[in-house]
From TrEMBL:
This is Mth938-like domain-containing protein. Transmembrane segments: none annotated. It comes from Phyllobacterium zundukense. CDD domains: Mth938-like (cd00248). InterPro entries: MTH938-like_sf (IPR036748), NDUFAF3/AAMDC (IPR007523). Pfam families: DUF498 (PF04430).
Length: 129
């Protein structure tokens, strides 16, 4: 019996710096991904926030599942800085995660620096064109 193509959730099982961003995606670890990503202790995951441009706790459920390994969450909000809703900031704070929204470009650069310093950092990065 011939097996068809198996579609799996996008996931790179390791921590890696982001080499490039733009054109609707990201490059990292000699790979590329089209769309938004979550950079977490468990690896880099494809991510489709459901409530853009406003993020909710449901959009960051995978972040909250790994909260014990995350101190700082950088949120790349696209080309423009957007504040996180107070309700989301409260949920993150309850999980002892400091959140820092910024443009996606700034978040990528900051993530790479903190990752190189071996900090407990995660990033939610919205793809930009």
């Amino acid at each position: 019996m011939v097996k068809g193509i198996e579609i799996r959730d996008a996931h790179f099982p390791g921590r890696a710096p982001i080499d490039a961003y733009g054109n609707g995606g990201f490059r990292f670890a000699d790979m590329s991904h089209r769309g938004s990503i979550l950079c977490l202790p468990s690896g880099i995951h494809g991510w489709e926030p459901k409530t853009l441009p406003i993020l909710t706790a449901a959009d960051l459920s995978l972040v909250l599942e790994q909260a014990s390994d995350i101190e700082i969450l950088l949120v790349g909000t696209g080309t423009e800085l957007r504040r996180l809703p107070q309700e989301l900031r409260d949920v993150l704070r309850a999980h002892r995660i400091s959140s820092d929204p910024m443009s996606t470009g700034a978040a990528v650069r900051t993530y790479n620096v903190l990752l190189a310093e071996d900090r407990a950092v995660a990033a939610a990065l919205i793809a930009v064109d």
